[in-house]
Amino acid sequence: MPTSFTLATPIGDIAVALPPSIGVFERLGMDYCCGGSRTLAESAKAADADAEAVLAELAGMQRSEDDRDWSEAPIPELLDHILSSHHEYTKQALPALWEMIRKVVNAHGERHPELEQMRRIMGGLFQELDMHLQKEEQILFPMIRALAEPGAGGAGPGGCPSGPEGPMTVMEAEHDSAGAALRELRSLSAGYVLPEGACTTYQALFAGMQDLEKDLHTHIHLENNVLHPRTRALMGL
Ligand SMILES: [Fe+2]
Ligand SMILES: [Fe+2]
């Protein structure tokens, strides 16, 4: 319950129990996905935010009726939600953003050398994400699905002798790497503040990158803080 949060509550647990808190964490630049196990106080300190003020703001919030409680929903539904909302979104966004950064570097790269650095980081991130989604879709998610629905005739947790634990650990390391790339991109773009005279494509690029950042944060949060702990609980870990 929101009223039971304290400065010592892990920020990822707050994001699970009170989804509207994600808006506050995004606004203040507090890491609730990769760094979800850190306490509210630690996360606030890292983002230079006032932890007591955050706690007061959260106390006035309520879970909306539309917010699905993913900590309780059947795991196959959670998997379907991650796939249809976040994986689909990412697959559509990446090629469009890549096309935009290419154009923006061509048009403005000379005056803004940071754009070329952004293009390089985006290239690495997008390639990693592409492989990452494939690994989840082809290896990890089917294993989790088979574990959650043992009688449903799934493929069974084959393909990896250790079960989902090994792939989950690898995915978490890749989430950290994506989180670091997003932070670097935010820093290079000075918080996605547009320079004077930015063309429409420049504007669309910065808006699109902020959307991607927010979506990836929520996506990683659902996997690191909900899906993986629930899978570990199923495995008795
Ligand atoms: Fe994913
Ligand atoms: Fe992932």
How would you characterize the overall build of this protein?
67% of the residues lie in helices and 0% in strands. The protein has 237 residues and is mainly alpha-helical. The chain has 2 domains: 2-59, SP0561-like, CATH 1.10.3910; 75-234, no CATH class. Helix 5 runs antiparallel to helix 6, helix 5 (75-108) runs antiparallel to helix 8 and helix 6 runs antiparallel to helix 7. The longest helix is centred in the middle third of the chain and has 35 residues, at 114-148. The chain is globular. The model is unreliable at 153-158 (pLDDT under 50). The structure holds fe (ii) ion (2 copies).
What value does the Rg take, in angstroms? 19 Å
Counted beta strands:
0
| Major β-sheet annotation | none
Helical amount among residues, as a percent range?
55-70%
Note the overall shape.
Answer: globular
The average pLDDT score comes to 92
Helix/strand/pairing category? mainly alpha
Low-confidence stretches: 153-158
Number of domains: 2
- Helix segment count? 8
Bound molecules: fe (ii) ion
Assembly context of the chains: single chain
- Sheet-strand content, in percent, reads under 5%
Helix/strand order, N-terminal first:
HHHHHHHH
Distance, first to last CA:
25 Å
